[in-house]
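(Deposited chain)
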Amino acid sequence: MLGRLTQGLASRLPGQCAVCRRWPAQPVCEPCVSRFAQPAARCRRCALPVQGGIAECGRCVASAPPLDACHAAVSYDYPWSSLITQFKFNGQAGWAQPFGVLMRSAPWMEPALDSADVVVPMPLSDERLAERGFNQALLLARELAPAKTWPDLLLRIRHTTPQAALNRQGRLANVLDAFAVDPLRTGDVRGKRIALIDDVMTSGASLFAAALALRQAGAVHIAALVFARTDESA
């Protein structure tokens, strides 16, 4: 994993590692990747951490989410949480490239991308897109599988309150019916295997709502691929 990751990051000019300030280094140096991006056992349906040998967490066994699979490259923790903030809120779109390399290097990500017919980034509302200047999920999707990425297939049809201040039930209600497949393109979804891309998964509410819209349009398999996953208790 580390050799491939280092090779992928080498396409950028050297500088300081954003984590340990090692110089010269790529955006995140090899020792920091080795320390902070080790693969972890995760639930195959929601990517929450689980004990080794367990396929699904108790929550997914009790109530299966609308995802057939879910994979995360890292935990939403130090140092990734602060780097995601730079990427998402400070206009540093260049983080899409190293984050994309980390995602492709994580277990099960590449097979999920290879088996997908279509790669769909999570859409932003017009208001949120105007605030940020770019859709971070679209940038990641184009790093992961540019030839398969369909940016306008899934639409965000309702602007919602930011999820951060809400509890799990509030998040689920907040994004209910917030997504829809472009009605002129439902035929492009029917019978397809979809890889749904986002930067961060917290409760999963937004991804679940998007997956429901894709399922209603006829998708036969939906896998969520995210860069970081919050490690709430399963």
User: Anything to note?
Assistant: The mean pLDDT is 88. The beta strands are 69-75, 118-121, 154-156, 179-181, 193-201, 221-229. The first strand starts at residue 69 and ends at 75.
